[in-house]
Request: fold
Amino acid sequence: MRIIGIDVHVLLEPSYDVSATSSAQDNLVVEIHTDEGVSGIGECDVNPWMARACILAPGTHTMGQGLSDMLIGEDPRNIERIWNKLYVGSAMNGRRGVVLHAMGAIDMALHDLKGKLLGVPVYELLGGAVRSFITPYASLQPEVSDFNAYRNSLAGWATKAKQLGFRAAKAECTLFGPYSHKGLSGTPEQTTEVVAAVRQAVGSDFTLMVDVQYAFPNADACLATIRNWEPYDIYFLETPIWSDDLDGYARLAREQPIPISAGEWLATRYEFEDLMDRGLASVVQPDPGRVGGLLEAQKVCDMAKARGRKVVPHIWKTGISISAGIHLAAANEHVPFIEFLPKELCESALRKELVIEDFGMADGQIPLPTKPGLGVELNRDALGKFKEAADKAVRDRIL
Reply:
């Protein structure tokens, strides 16, 4: 069996907003095809035009190759061999960042393809299931530009998440900093006000995470605010400062009681080793479409287990990545939650429509998938619509 082709789809939400800081508005989806008619799908969370270039660009020497040139002709069942070949062969293009994110989409598709070939769910390729269900948390991020509307919307969404059966939710409290949405300009005190409002809305019998998305410039500024958060019983605080400030992360871990989580942007196990050993993160968050795929995400899980840390995968794309996160959690007992945004709490048509899936959440839990591979399919009509929107954006020179 050999790989004979790869389709690379750049997708865009037709109603995207350039003032929003949300990668839910675009996507890069790959389909890998074999000479026996079996295909696999994957996606990654990065600028899709850049990722497409990493995959399709021709190379001129042995360590500056495009990913598709190295992929064609390989046996898709040899996932680790392919990963290492792509990593070494593209090393001079960049051993991290967009190249590794693009590799994540390919690796995800290879796992989907291999699972279909063998007739087993992907978690069997990762070592087998260690649980019978997955616990998701609702990831909540309002798309409004006024503080009062933001606070009220977030508290309202958290209440709805609880009504839908969720046992946990993450509040994206981003009122300032690089992720400030739609021109919001708030204060640390207002962030505390939002956290308090959400905790009051959901009550004490509900797991609450908080993500401030790199809002604080340093550990001192963060500590000045979060030392007041003990009454709100926060399960973890996500990415409070810049990813590269590992010494700052270590200070946060040592000087206050809230567990600190990070890792959504990181690529490869090597960056996670630094995050755990130097940054002392209690919870690490590999994104299968950013870290380099499920193969690399599993290596991060193994490293975290050896260090006594928890893993909560970052997932901010469509049902393709959600499914990848479900399979990763199924195979690892130290993954207590996965990030999940159901259609009822979602504003992005791209997220709602791109794939055909049925995760079947009941009573706050998702049962183990039983279909071969990732268990999701592309909605071809939706795929065409989002490809057309991406092409139109380029023609109009908006992008």
Q: What stands out?
A: DSSP finds 13 helices and 15 strands in the chain. The longest helix spans residues 97-118.
